[in-house]
Fold this sequence. Notes:
Strand content: 25-35%
Helix content: 25-40%
Distance between the termini: 57 Å
Structural class: alpha+beta
Number of strands: 14
CATH superfamily of the largest domain: Immunoglobulins
Strand order of the largest sheet: 12-11-10-13-14
Radius of gyration: 34 Å
Number of domains: 3
Order of helices and strands: HHEEEEEEEHEHEEHEEHEEHH
Amino acid sequence: MSKLPNILRLVWFFLFYLTVVIYTLIFPTTASWFLFYALTLWIISSFLSTRQSYHLTHTERIRRDDNSFSFAFTLQNKRRHPFFLSAVKITLLINDHHQTFYTSTLFSRQIDSEFQAVVLPRGHHDTLRLEITGIGLFGVWKKHSELTVPINVDVFPHVLKKSERDQLMHTMTPHLTQTSHSFNHDYYMNEIRSYQNRDSLAGIDWKASLKRGQWMVKEYQAEEEAPVDLYFLGFDTESFEDLLSVGYSLLQDLKATRKVNLFLLGRFDHEVTVKQTEDSFLTIEPVENPQELIELSRSVFHKPSSKIIIKSREITASLPLNSPMNHHFIDEGTLLQVKGGHINSADHKKQTNA
Length: 354
């Protein structure tokens, strides 16, 4: 159906040109011949112009805070002479989505196009596709072509807003206060040294001070935050990408202050398995069979450690009965709280203890 208007326009223009030819032959005046030659020259120029090919001369991309992109492309005619086109339509193709940019190009040598707020799917992107439609004067002649643009972009899950991350960290504070050793234990003492003005009187070692005849204090190793295991159970629900964003945001915040052991449980290259690298956020896909995910989780939950487990409320994940460390579950209810929603306290307690 979209080709019908173009065909009608072409037929109408052919009839118009035929009328000019007949009129010139019947009334061969200077004006009629001038009109005939000018129209013929314009038709030939317009047709040849739409037959031209384009190449990419410049690409610019800007990644925004909301994980969207702005792209700017500069195209040029391969023959480097001006376009005799009324306009060019450039369509940026992204999977099932597209954005279109129109620009006038009459007597131009290059085409500058911009695409704002382009949202790319999570994953690695080597290229984008540009569909170019050159439109001749009055839209009579058209030519479609396509360019592949290299971009080499990694799109990780969306990072939560700072206020949302702060709210999430606040809910987990009781589960993240453990340290890797007990402060002031002699095993972690570095040295006994002379008292300095910056030292607290409470830190004075009285026994050592009496022996040496001067104030002495014990200096201990700095406390280190206990490592935490961050688990993401990728079950196939509508909240999969939202929960994955929570996991990625948590990883960014936690690894700034402590060691984090990452466990991503999901489908990778059509196989249900566990990945432990940050790059795996790009390729993880949800698991449709809950039993597969539960069995896989049992094989990785045996390690005694503090655990943060991100999962959908639609799937049940249980820890070993002899697990001695703290653990904390995050699901859709937690996500709703973080984003300013409300959840019944009894339901939240039930989910946390699930």
